[in-house]
Amino acid sequence: MAESTKEPTSTPTTSQPKIYLAGPDVFLPNAVAHGAHLKTLCAAQNAHGLFPLDKTLTSHPPNSYSLAHAIREANMNLIKESDAVLANMTPFRGPSMDVGTAYEMGAASALGEDCCGVYA
């Protein structure tokens, strides 16, 4: 079967599951480009990827409580919008997975969503 050269759509169709892409990938130097790549991989599987950096938060001072709160709220809204969570559980800044990712997986589970972890 030949590969499709069609660009993925930016808005999901009703048949596409929405997958929240959790993980420490948001801390990569090229995080936005990496998120776009992950979303392309989702589209190739007929899914719509939701990356935590999809929403730009510019009205908060860097390293502020208000920014932390806005990030949590934006990500929780994406998790609530999603059908499932795919989480990068690769150890981050120590021997364990990213604690924010663990929180997101727990929140999604509490909402009744399917969660799947991957380890790279």
Automatic annotation (TrEMBL):
Q: Name one GO molecular function term.
A: 5-hydroxymethyl-dUMP N-hydrolase activity
Descriptive protein name: Nucleoside 2-deoxyribosyltransferase
**GO BP of this protein:** deoxyribonucleoside monophosphate catabolic process
Q: Which Pfam families match?
A: Nuc_deoxyrib_tr (PF05014)
